[in-house]
Amino acid sequence: MRRKPKENNFKAVLETVRDLMNIQFVVPDWLHDIILGYGDPLSAHFKNMIDSSELVNFNDTFLDYQHLLASFPNYEITTSADESKLLPPFKLKIDEKERKIEVFPFVLPNRRPYPAAQPRKNSLRFTPTQVEAIKAVLIGV
């Protein structure tokens, strides 16, 4: 008896179902309790997940130090360098509980053989809301 090709997919479907049952689905620890229905849903908000000891690399998000100050209006911003000489890119140490940010400027290494062939940089002045979204992504949410 010859089988119809359209209906002859049992083996493939069975293998797919078997593979899906055997896969180890990994849910991040911070999301596990929320999916199961326990815990506080606000604990998964990025503001509650920030490790204040971690430096967050914002690369070319800020055009200058004044843009950084304008992007975090409700934060106390400090730096160890002279503010007039601060140039992007910046790494930030963010403490959400204390509402403080420590700024660390750094220099990107030149990865190009010719000095004139520099990578393009951001030319947009992001709003504070857009910077909040960028911060959420950089933290890893």
TrEMBL record:
Residues 54-98 form the RNA helicase aquarius insertion domain. InterPro entries: Aquarius_insert. This is RNA helicase aquarius insertion domain-containing protein.
